[in-house]
Amino acid sequence: MTGALNGGTRLFPIIGDPIVYVKSPERLTRSFADRNMNAICIPMQVAEERLGDVMQGLSAIGNIDGLLVTMPHKAAAFGYRTTYSERARLLKVVSVMRRNPDGSWHGDMLDGLAFVKAQIDQGADPGGARALLVGAGGAGSAIAIALLEAGVGELVIHDSHKACAEELLATGASLGRGKVRLGPPNPTGCDLVFNATPMGMTKSDAFPVDVALLDASMFVGDVIAGHGTTPFLRAAQAAGCRTANGDQMVEAVQDMMVEFMLAR
Prior knowledge:
The protein is an alpha/beta fold. The chain has helices at 24-34, 51-59, 74-77, 86-91, 111-121, 138-149, 162-174, 231-238, 246-262; strands at 10-11, 14-16, 39-40, 43-45, 66-69, 83-84, 96-99, 105-108, 130-134, 154-158, 179-182, 192-195, 219-222, 242-244. Strands 4-2-5-7-8-6 form a six-stranded mixed sheet. Strands 11-10-9-12-13-14 form a six-stranded parallel sheet, sandwiched between helices.
């Protein structure tokens, strides 16, 4: 925490529902303090149907310099930005927003970048790799774009909701980077295997892929944070795979968020 709160303190709320599980307020506030900034990140419980009211209020508060956006608001919050990154434009979602000089909002999506950084930090090599991505929702879409930008040679996308998978296929193909196709959740022949679904948040969940098909040549990553090593990752480790978990993704995004907020 900062040494003192006063009239000069800059605010960076994180909005979501539920908000009780987020770790960013403590981590981001510590990062601000490490940079000698008089700033804090504060959690705000915002119901989906109240986002418009909240955004109107936050926009009117002069000492709010940026916002962190978590579920379920990432898609809806895109509608409140004036400017945006190319990633945000492609995905039509935002995970962070900062003030433009005129007080309007600039949005970006950092989740995919953070996920890929966490994988690389733990030993994954996306360059030229064949990757299987299970999950084409908000997180999966961001991860897909980041994987293609990181140089994967082939990206196989699977989602039980075919429309989501097809939409991500079109978005990924539009980048002109690597081969992108739809396929079953079969990791055979893949170098990288990633879960971008909620499967694994409860003990009764099925695995996103058949873990009997995993082998030690594969790197396996899971987007689920706050649960440590998920059953899926434990099965992957038992097969000899190197792994990265969602908590490592959360750690990877901290510096990215600070740098984004400071780039005003």
